[in-house]
Automatic annotation (TrEMBL):
Subcellular location(s) per record: Cell membrane
Annotated GO CC locations: plasma membrane
Keywords tagged on the record: Cell membrane, Membrane, Transmembrane, Transmembrane helix, Transport
InterPro entries per UniProt: BPD_transp_1_N (IPR045621), MetI-like (IPR000515), MetI-like_sf (IPR035906)
Membrane topology: Multi-pass membrane protein
Species whose genome carries this gene: Heyndrickxia oleronia
Family to which the UniProt record says this protein belongs: Belongs to the binding-protein-dependent transport system permease family.
Protein name: Peptide ABC transporter permease
Taxonomy of the source species: Bacteria, Bacillati, Bacillota, Bacilli, Bacillales
């Protein structure tokens, strides 16, 4: 397992190098730059714009710019944000805790609800409860996140006044106090519930269908014929095999945990990585944009590795040599 993990990690290097070329090229092909008047109306002086382009090397050939960027990148120098006038690591570091908090909270909601509803629907298929859960799942799959977010803000924030409609914390509260953390939880609950409920639909259906399928397998009938307790048959033989598809999702959830929900964060004006990514695209903030894209790419590859390793843990029949 260790040799396999090391081999996979080393195999990520050429893949990330290829991704870096594509990311850099696409970023440079975007119309405009951070110093054009169409991006920042205050930068209307042609002399200032040309001076900044020359200073940051935007007038150099694209291959020269790429090698300069990638050489700094591998040394841990991700550049300086052209919008915030700060180091990229500082800009991302300010948003990262909010995104991790939002992603972790939504994942807890998703897996708890999916496990409860999927297990119930799988053990009692084609009943009223199963049909009700199925209807809710299809409704969750059909509703886009931006529609659910807008309606949630309207009803729970504006009408019922139960949750705040934007931000990650009340700015009037002192940082680090107990009230501060309560405020953070209060602000993250509504977007996390929206993300969690929408993600629950597909997870529940996968678990429900796998439980039904595995309950009809030969090894389950053999266990029943031997007089094995029904609870042991379900927990050991059926449920353990049925949660394997959820392990696949878990690997990609690592990416979502950091990447955040771009649309949801934008709707709730939640200051996370997702909203930062949108801002970097609209303002042509190349250093932030390319760093975030490379981070998402690495996490995707790393998530796939975690999935393969977890397969061997969950299912003893799968062993990575």
């Amino acid at each position: 397992m260790l040799k396999y993990s090391i081999r996979r990690l080393l195999g990520m290097i050429p893949m990330l190098l290829l991704i870096s070329i594509v990311v850099f090229t696409l970023a440079m092909l975007m119309p405009g730059d951070p110093f054009g008047g169409e991006i920042d109306p205050t930068n209307t002086s042609p002399e200032y714009i040309e001076q900044m382009r020359e200073k940051l090397g935007y007038n150099d050939p694209i291959y020269v710019q790429y090698f300069r960027w990638i050489s700094d990148f591998v040394q841990g120098d991700f550049g300086k944000s052209t919008r915030y006038k700060m180091a990229v690591t500082d800009v991302i570091g300010e948003r990262l805790p909010n995104t991790i908090f939002l992603g972790f909270t939504s994942l807890v909601i998703t897996y708890i609800l999916a496990f409860i509803m999927g297990s119930y629907a799988g053990r009692k298929p084609y009943t009223i409860g199963d049909n009700l859960i199925g209807g809710l799942n299809y409704l969750g799959l059909a509703i886009p996140s931006f529609v659910a977010g807008v309606f949630a803000i309207y009803f729970f924030s504006f009408q019922l006044n139960l949750f705040p409609s934007n931000g990650s914390v009340d700015i009037t509260i002192t940082d680090g106090t107990f009230e501060y953390w309560l405020s953070r939880i209060h602000h993250v609950l509504l977007p996390a519930i929206i993300l969690g409920l929408l993600g629950t639909a597909s997870y529940t259906q996968f678990l429900r269908n796998d439980i039904i399928e595995n309950s009809r397998k030969d090894f389950v009938r053999t266990a029943r014929a031997k007089g094995t307790k029904e609870s042991k048959i379900y927990n050991v033989h059926i449920l353990r095999n049925s949660i394997i598809p959820l392990v696949t999702f878990l690997g990609f959830d690592i990416v979502n945990l950091i990447g955040g929900a771009i649309i949801t964060e934008s709707i709730f004006t939640f200051p996370g990585i997702g909203q930062l990514f949108i801002e970097s695209v609209t303002t042509n903030d190349y250093p932030v944009l390319m760093t975030l894209t490379m981070m998402f790419s690495f996490l995707t590859l790393f998530g796939n590795l975690i999935v393969d390793i977890l397969y061997g843990v969950v299912d003893p029949r799968i062993r990575v040599e």
